[in-house]
Amino acid sequence: MLIKAGALGEIYEFKKEEELIKNIIKIWPNHWEAYYLYAIKCSAAGDDGKSFEMIDKSIELEENFDNVIIKAQLLQLSGKKDFMEYIAKAKKIDKERTEKFMKNHWVNNIEDVNPTFNEILSVLKMHIKQSLRRKQ
Question: What pTM does this model have?
Fold first, then answer.
């Protein structure tokens, strides 16, 4: 169910993604990864308050590389200076993975992020499919 929820977000099925994540949380309220996914979803939707609430809950349940580095990224994108504390925590958990994340995935400024051709194509396909479904 977690994999499906993540996949739904990747194909821009945000309502279905949110419904599934909420269902996962209802069934397994103590699973860190559901809150982690919800934090990412809320951040993408521009709901920083809910995003921080969810990532904090994820870390409270099980502090690991994934939720710690995402907390760092969320803090940095929100302009909060304490993001370095979470990068340091991530390095303590897995130094090599942190270095790779910082090199390949870290976003310094969300305005500098541009979608790839495949991402644009995926969004267009999704809109066409939804439009065709509505006409039926």
Answer: 0.77
Nearest to 37 by CA among 77, 76, 82, 2: 2
Chain centroid to Cα 63, Å, comes to 16
Maximal C-alpha separation, the chain: 54
Domains of the chain: 2-135 (1.25.40.10)
Per-residue pLDDT tens over the stretch 80-120: 889 999 999 999 999 999 999 888 877 765 555 455 666 56
> Which single residue is written with the structure tokens 């994540």?
21
Secondary structure (DSSP) of 14-43:
HHHHHHHHHHHHHH-TT-HHHHHHHHHHHH
**Residues constituting the chain:** 136
- State the first-to-last Cα distance of the chain, in angstroms, to the nearest integer: 29
